[in-house]
Design brief:
Blueprint (H helix, E strand, L loop, with lengths): L1 H21 L10 H4 L8 H6 L4 E6 L11 E6 L2 E3 L12 E5 L4 E3 L1 E8 L4 E8 L3 E3 L3 E8 L12 E10 L6
Parallel strand pairs: 1-9, 7-10
Antiparallel strand pairs: 1-4, 2-3, 2-6, 5-8, 6-7, 9-10
Length: 172
């Protein structure tokens, strides 16, 4: 019985030392604060609604009244399907997305669905480079779709042009 008490005593002491070691204040280098210190709460909604979009995506030449009737786009940011602000119709030619994102690196891709009459073919749209969102810059992704005579894309994968501009807080 005393051996059990001895083992339990050692285990209790070990746990006490472990808990005491974890309970101290976390210390970090000042250069690590940006990545390691997270806010205790997000900004209020009324503040974030006033922020200008820091990612603008333009996709031109999606659908029309001839060979591209019913063609459409699905846009994904980090695998979230993003819907545009404005209504999409069967002949919507240009899609515009104005998004507010937290600073960081994002995967942006899209699928272009071309209706060929009997079937629907899917084409990929992608960014050549990583899309980096900065607190003081606006990332602009733009693509003008190049289509063949039946409304499909000339290439199986088409790429966005990526540029960065300063954020104009007056614009929304």
């Amino acid at each position: 019985m005393s051996a059990k008490k001895y083992i339990y005593g050692i285990l209790a002491l070990f746990l006490l030392i472990l808990i005491a070691g974890c309970a101290g204040t976390k210390k970090i280098n000042i250069n690590d604060a940006y990545l390691k210190v997270k806010p205790v709460a997000p900004l209020p909604q009324y503040v974030t609604n006033k922020q200008a979009p820091n990612l603008v995506i333009r996709i031109n030449n999606v659908a029309d009244l001839s060979s591209s009737y019913k063609n459409r786009i699905d846009l994904y940011i980090n695998n979230f399907l993003i819907r545009p602000d404005e209504e999409i119709t069967n002949v919507k030619s240009n899609y515009l997305y104005k998004v507010r994102l937290q600073p960081g690196i994002f995967e942006v891709r899209a699928k272009y669905f071309a209706s060929t009459g009997w079937q629907e073919k899917t084409f990929k749209l992608a960014a050549r480079d990583q899309v980096m969102i900065f607190p003081d810059k606006q990332a602009l992704l733009k693509i003008n779709l190049k289509k063949n005579n039946w409304g499909g894309l000339e290439d199986k994968i088409s790429y966005f042009d990526l540029t960065y501009d300063t954020i104009d807080q007056g614009k929304k």
